[in-house]
Amino acid sequence: MSNEKQVEDVVEETVDTEVQQEETVEESVEATLQTEIDQLKQQLEEQENRYVRLQADFDNFRRRSRLDAEAAQKYRAQSLVTDILPALDNFDRALQVNTEDENTKSVMKGVEMVYRQLVEALQKEGVEAIESVGKPFDPYEHQAVMQVEDEAYEPNTVVEELQKGYKLKDKIIRPAMVKVNQ
């Protein structure tokens, strides 16, 4: 019986050793799997963060594109208006000429009609003349080219407009050239 006992003990020790080895292998596999799971979770989190940032960038791009398109539509006439303003100034100067001759008066009447039509067309596009005389000087709307002393006006007030200024909707196309009271 002693041999049987020894054999049983050896078998038992071998089984225990194998069980311990299996447990060690299982623990090692579990540790490896847990490490892989942690790495995959980290990669997933990084990808989710990247996705969120890309989505935000895309939303910002769409918003900027929409705003640019709206601005382009809103100010589409800006270059045309800028090109037409010198002609409008020349019409203003022509209309200030006083004439006594009937032929010249009829020509001036025609010039005035063309001027009014041009002004109306520009107004339809949102162009407005900047009111200056008697208003406080505003460096965004006015370009001061002279200073005078006139007691009829308060200090820092526009006394005379030398060249009209214009704005397109809410954007200044050309500031008015003005004389300002000191």
Automatic annotation (TrEMBL):
Q: Sorted alphabetically, which keywords does the UniProt record give?
A: Chaperone, Coiled coil, Cytoplasm, Stress response
Pfam families assigned to the protein according to its UniProt record, in alphabetical order? GrpE
**Which ranges are annotated Acidic residues under compositional bias?**
9-24
- Write out the GO MF terms: adenyl-nucleotide exchange factor activity; protein homodimerization activity; protein-folding chaperone binding; unfolded protein binding
Q: Which residues form a coiled coil?
A: 30-64
Q: Name one GO biological process term.
A: protein folding
Segments carrying the region annotation (Disordered) are: 1-24
The protein's superkingdom reads Bacteria
Q: Which InterPro entries match?
A: GrpE (IPR000740), GrpE_CC (IPR013805), GrpE_head (IPR009012)
- Which Gene Ontology CC terms are recorded? cytoplasm
Quaternary structure, from the entry: Homodimer.
Main function: Participates actively in the response to hyperosmotic and heat shock by preventing the aggregation of stress-denatured proteins, in association with DnaK and GrpE. It is the nucleotide exchange factor for DnaK and may function as a thermosensor. Unfolded proteins bind initially to DnaJ; upon interaction with the DnaJ-bound protein, DnaK hydrolyzes its bound ATP, resulting in the formation of a stable complex. GrpE releases ADP from DnaK; ATP binding to DnaK triggers the release of the substrate protein, thus completing the reaction cycle.
What does the similarity note say? Belongs to the GrpE family.
| Record-given protein name | Protein GrpE
Instruction: Please report the organism this UniProt entry assigns to the protein.
Output: Priestia flexa
Name of the gene: grpE
